[in-house]
Amino acid sequence: MKKLKRSGRLVDMTNFLLQHPHELISLGYFTERYESAKSSVSEDLTIIKEIFETQGVGALRTVAGASGGVQYVPKVEKSTAELFVDGLCEKLENKERLLPGGYLYMMDILGRPRTMNEVGKMFASVFADRQIDAIVTVAMKGIPLGYAIGTYLDVPVSIVRRDHRVTEGSTVSINYVSGSSRRIQTMSLARRSLPEGSNVLVVDDFMKAGGTVSGMIELLQEFRANVAGIGVLVEAEGAGERLVDDYVSIARVEEVNEKTKNIRVVPGNFLTKLEKERSR
């Protein structure tokens, strides 16, 4: 890269940091990249840090020592999160979403990259300090959510499936009880997809009683994994006894009336959890 003026360095450095969340980048990398002195790079990072924090983009952490450097940690402002959550609740209340059995159509939300990116950043903001090694989610609708969060936490995504695939090699399978239907179902995870002892964030797109999430937690015990957190895009109220209780949800469905086609959706516990994490 050719030598840049400060304005050019600031633009390029900001773009680089935004594309590499949670990655520890040495100052030496930037000095070589821009052919600049460490003092100049440090001054640039101070400017970027101030802008990130005042604009609610995130935090810029400095790690001292020979193996240290700088790390961009995505964060979301409470006011920004409130606007997004309110907008999501409004979309979910559209009566055209109602499907037979009281289910809600959500693929337009899960299939929109910009929306999933916002959700991913929100969850990454809550779980930023949990030392997560991997995301675990269930196919198929949990995949876009899992990858969105994994992008902002800079961790791989492992996909739990309900059927075995030859291309994934040997798998670990368990039988679990579905929370809502109380049926016995099977889920499996490829042995090579998750190292033993990993700190895992379990995510799901929709949770009623929590049977699927509970099943994933049970499956992870076979990998001696530690569940560092649970993230749910939408939870349903009044689904009977919950099988999981410590989770973060963006929205909560309080009522679905198939006869009147009335859907009432309110914010989940995300905003409360966000405040609690920041007060630690």
TrEMBL record:
Domain (Phosphoribosyltransferase) ranges: 113-249
UniProt KW keywords: DNA-binding, Transcription, Transcription regulation
MF (Gene Ontology): DNA binding
Pfam families: Pribosyltran, PuR_N
Alphabetical list of SUPFAM superfamilies matching this protein: PRTase-like, Winged helix' DNA-binding domain
GO biological process, one term: negative regulation of DNA-templated transcription
Residue ranges of domain Bacterial purine repressor N-terminal in the record: 5-74
Complex and partners: Homodimer.
Protein family: Belongs to the purine/pyrimidine phosphoribosyltransferase family. PurR subfamily.
Protein name (database record): Pur operon repressor
Organism encoding this protein: Marinococcus halophilus
